[in-house]
Write a structure and sequence with these properties.
The chain is α+β, with helices and mostly antiparallel strands and 158 residues long. The chain folds into two domains: 41 residues, Winged helix-like DNA-binding domain superfamily/Winged helix DNA-binding domain (Arc Repressor Mutant, subunit A, Orthogonal Bundle), CATH 1.10.10; 82 residues, Alpha-Beta Plaits, CATH 3.30.70.920. 35% of the residues lie in helices and 20% in strands. The chain contains five helices and four strands; from the N terminus they run H-H-H-E-H-E-E-H-E. Strands 2-3-1-4 form a four-stranded antiparallel beta sheet. Helix 2 packs across helix 3. It is elongated. The protein starts with 6 loop residues before the first helix and ends in a 16-residue tail after the last strand.
């Protein structure tokens, strides 16, 4: 169920999306609150699950992770048990950055990163294809990422 956010809550969330390491004093000044009410609001947003976690975004290319791909997977039979089995298996694969359940011709979409095409091929053949319930794998290599929006604009109509 969606949480009702007021203008100050939205300002707090916008500031944190811009810089999750901002101090409470800087955050309070940015949203025109004193530190105690600002911290109280922040803790409420955390406890209500609006803020799930804080993280650092890394530069994949500087880390040598130059291949990104979308992989679409079809299971032999799309049952609840097969879904659980597949999801647990992909959670063990560090190349899988995202796993989504789909409606349509594929059962899952995976976002994969690897260092090069050889390691990507190895991942497909030696890891993903060895999950017994996988019936079909379709890959799309990402040539260039034009947009990687990580910030949610809370002022747009939701």
């Amino acid at each position: 169920m969606p949480i009702k956010l007021d203008k100050i809550d939205k300002q707090i969330l916008a500031a944190l999306q811009e810089n999750a390491r901002i101090s409470n004093a800087e955050l309070a000044a940015k949203v025109n609150l004193s530190q105690t009410p600002c911290l109280r609001r922040l803790r409420k947003l955390e406890s209500e699950g609006v803020i799930q976690q804080y993280r650092t975004q890394l530069d994949k290319k500087r880390l040598g992770l130059t291949i990104s791909a979308f992989v679409f997977v079809k299971l032999e039979r799309n049952t609840a048990q097969n879904g659980r089995t597949f999801e647990e298996a992909v959670k063990q694969l560090p190349q899988v950055m995202e796993c989504c359940v789909l409606a349509g011709s594929h059962d899952y979409s995976l976002r994969i990163i690897t260092s090069d095409l050889e390691s990507y091929e190895s991942f497909i053949k030696n890891d993903l294809a060895h999950i017994d319930i996988v019936a079909h794998i379709e890959s799309t290599i990402i040539l260039n990422q034009v947009l990687d929006r990580q910030v949610i604009d809370l002022n747009r109509p939701l």
